[in-house]
Every structure is written in structure tokens, then in C-alpha cells.
Design brief:
The chain is an alpha/beta fold and about 180 residues long. It has one domain: Rossmann fold. The protein is about 35% helix and about 30% strand. The protein contains six helices and eight strands; from the N terminus they run H-E-E-H-H-E-H-E-E-E-H-E-H-E. It has a six-stranded mixed beta sheet, with helices on both faces. Strands 1-2 form a two-stranded antiparallel sheet. Helix 5 links the parallel strand 6 and strand 7.
Length: about 180
Amino acid sequence: MEQDKKLLINLLKANDVIKFGKFTLSSGKKSDYYVDMKKAITDPQILLQVAKIISNLIKDDAIDRIAGPALGAVPIATAVALQSGIPMLMIRKAKKDYGTSKLIEGDLKEGDNVIVVEDVTTTGKSLLKTVRAVTDNGGKIKRTFVIVDRDEGAVEGLEKEGLQLEPIVSISDFK
């Protein structure tokens, strides 16, 4: 497992996913680094490595569905679904106001054991919205994973909600 993590860190470095400098984040907050996850989630080598790591971690867990919030986590959920053979769910940011008006795309059944994957976390609020969408619709959250945790409170914030966030890598792995 440690070797898989090292390979992922090397892939993220080689693809310039973590950039150091002065950045303004979407929240307006200033940061000394930027995590360009769109660069990561569009690279097949990175997606395959992430899928291998997560699939290995959940192989003994009797998971029924892999959920990922749109947009950033959908490629991750897809890669893990392909690697593990477990169906996926796409969680919209909001219900669409046309067609079927679904918040969740995919076949979530009452009592399904679900893992949630996310591309990057800062506070964990986005991940928590996904967790609530799944639980409000009958799913049981078994584990939550993030590819890169920014070490800015997501693990602690989700812990207060009774969830254990499992970062594959943290920003401290790049410093």
C-alpha cells in the first residue's frame, strides 16, 4: 500500500498537480499552494492508480455502490467502479428541474452500503453534502475517501459528523 501511495505522489508531482506560490482560491482565501485536481482527474495513469488504491482498501467491505459528487469526483468514482466491478452513483450539486428531477444518478437501493470518493477536500462541506444526499435516500455510508486533503480541517470536521475521512494523500506529503 505504501508503495502505491508513493507512486501516486510521484504521478501527482510529475503532472504538476500541486503548485506552490501565491494563489487565490475559489473561496477568496489566499493560499501558498494550489491543488489542480482537474489535471489529475483527466489523466488515465493517475485515475488508474487511485482506482487501484481505493479498490484494494474496500475489497473486503461488501460495498454496493461508489458515490462521487459532480463534477470532480465522477471520473474517480468511474475509475473505481471499473477497477472494482462495483456500480457507481453520481451525486448532482442540486436536483435538476427537468426530466426525472433526480439528485442521484444511478441505482441506489434502500440499505445499500456506499463509499463516497472526492477529489480534494478543504473543509469537507462538499463531501458532507454528498454523504447526506446518499443517507437521505436510504444508503449507508461505510467509508469516505479523498485523493488530496488540504489539511485544513476536513478530517476533523467530518469526524464531528461521525465520519472518518480517509485521505489517500495529504498536502503535507508534498512539502
